Amino acid sequence: MAARKLRILIAKPGLDGHDRGAKYIARALKDEGYEVIYTGIRQTPEAIAKTAIQEDADLVGLSLLSGAHLELFPRVVELLRENNAADILVFGGGVIPEADIPVLKAKGVKAVFTPGTPIQDVVAFIESVKT
Amino acid sequence: MSDLVRGIVSGETRAIARTISLIENGEARKEAVIDGLFAHTGRAAIVGITGPPGGGKSTLVDRLIERERRRQRRVAVIAVDPSSPFSGGALLGDRLRMQSHATDEGVFIRSMASRGHLGGIAEATGDVIKVLDAAGFDTIFIETIGVGQTEVEIIELSDLVLLVLVPGMGDEIQAMKAGVMEIGDLFVINKKDKPGADKLKAEVEYVLGIKYNGHPEAINPILMVSALNDEGVDELVHAADDYTATVTSSGQLEIRRRQRIAREMHKIFSKKVHEVMDVKIEFSKKIDAWVELIYSRTARPYELINQEMKSFLKEKS
Q1: Residue range A56-109, pLDDT digits in tens
Q2: Could you tell me the pLDDT band of residue B12, with boundaries at 50, 70 and 90?
Q3: pLDDT(B127) > 90
Q4: How confident is the model at residue A1 (pLDDT cuts 50, 70, 90)?
Q5: Which residues contact A51 (CB under 8 A, 6 or more apart)?
Q6: Which residues have C-beta within 8 Å of that of residue A31, sequence separation ≥ 6?
Q7: Which residue of A has its CA nearest to B14?
Q8: Considering only CA atoms, which of B165, B209, B169 is closest in space to residue B188?
Q9: Which chain A residue shows the shortest CA-CA distance from B21?
Q10: Which residues pair with B108 in a beta bridge?
Q11: pLDDT of B226
Q12: What is the spatial distance between Cα B134 and Cα B123, in angstroms, rounded to a whole number?
């Protein structure tokens, strides 16, 4: 019997094209044994939510460096809820000011990882919410 | 009818997506779900897209989705990428090229990791096709991994295979190798604007000319395309339609579908027999002892297994 594999969508909402962080996390999570779906830059929250549902993702990781995280991250959470997919958890990363993190968490973003976070912290988060 | 089956047949995305996961994970209830869906299958056109990595398969699929949508067809895509043999993880990036269709309700795209299965697809692919078929998608595209000459399994699952080749992959000797050149129904020479495209076309024609020596009418269509620049795609769609019409009226498609069923039944049967024998002979319990016997040369491999089989079969009779 094949084992259940966690599926993680890594997506970049918004307009910035700095995808190095997103690509790094995608590769690192692959090396940790997860199935990672990567959709590239400039995705709308609608496209991200639809993709997460089609891919039956367990988690969605959003990467953003443009400063629009307060708007775009919670929008993805909202769209998942509206589509009866609140069980798909959202986390985020990128250049996020410390002060914004509690705001994002209050709006349903489960975790926020800022630059320099060791990949093991991300893995620990994933394992803590899904096993 | 179970909730999942009802959800799939009425085209609910979540039900489709979750069922695909339970098939991939090999959950026991998948059998009931597939059987429950079975009466609703058999309507979709199943098109395989194969060819070397970097050949533009995903970009071509993106164009083909658009053409199918223009004629009001609902489209599903299964895009297979390899799992790492070391971590078991996978980076699934094919849909990157297809995201312009992400919010189209008539398009369903699913990335699939091979999970150790060889042959260019995943073990679950065949059953997942049934789910998408039952969900009412008119056309199902399957994009293979693209590692090369062993990707023959796609022919077992599809009604039509597009083999995507690109210039600069090697000389005609490569083209003559058994395997990948034999699985295409239509040959797509992608990146036709690149140097060497015409030469590649001539090489493919030459190889197919040898294969169909004396029957030039049987030679598969060869299409020159630039998926990226959206050139030659309409011609490809027309050629695919013509080809499908021909193999439908000649009865070849029916033969192919019957062969598919035979192979699938064989596969299920083998798996079931294997599972039963595994339990009866207590393989997992005995394997360690067998390893010792063989390692120390106190037993011989075929003799040992044959004795086990014999003693089991005797008990039965």
Answers
A1: 999 999 999 988 999 999 999 999 999 999 999 999 999 999 999 999 999 999
A2: very high
A3: yes
A4: very low
A5: A9, A11, A37, A39, A43, A57, B95, B99, B102, B109
A6: B84, B87, B89
A7: A53
A8: B165
A9: A56
A10: B76
A11: 97
A12: 19
Q: Is the pLDDT of residue B57 over 80?
A: yes
Work out the pLDDT band at A14, boundaries 50, 70, 90.
confident
pTM of the model: 0.92
Give the model's pLDDT for residue B146: 81
Stated as kind and residue range, the H or E segment containing B109 is strand B107-113
Residue keyed to tokens 């410390």: A98
How many CB atoms are closer than 10 A to CB B116? 13
Separation in Å, CA of A46 to nearest CA in chain B: 7
A37 contacts in chain B (CB < 8 Å): 92-93, 95, 111
Q: How many residues does chain B have?
A: 317
Encode pLDDT of B234-249 as tens digits: 999 999 999 999 999 9
Chain A environment of B20 (Cβ under 8 Å): 56
Q: Do A5 and B95 touch (CB under 8 A)?
A: no
Looking up tokens 């297809």, which residue turns up?
B98
ipTM of the complex model: 0.93
Report which of B181, B28, B157, B151 is spatially closest to residue B82, judged by C-alpha positions: B151
Please count the residues of chain A: 131
Reduced to 3 states (helix: H, G, I; strand: E, B; else coil), residue B30 is helix
C-beta neighbour count of B268 within 10 angstroms: 12
How far does Cα B175 stand from its chain's mean position? 21
Q: Give the dihedral sign, CA B22/A124/B84/B87.
A: negative
CB burial class (10 A; 0-12, 13-18, 19+) of residue B188? Answer: buried
Tokens of A78: 């909202």
In this structure, what token pair is assigned to residue B289? Answer: 């002892």
> Å from B93 to nearest chain A CA?
5
Whether the CA torsion A115, A118, A123, A129 is positive or negative: it is: negative
State how far the Cα of B181 lies from the Cα of A116, in Å rounded to an integer.
48
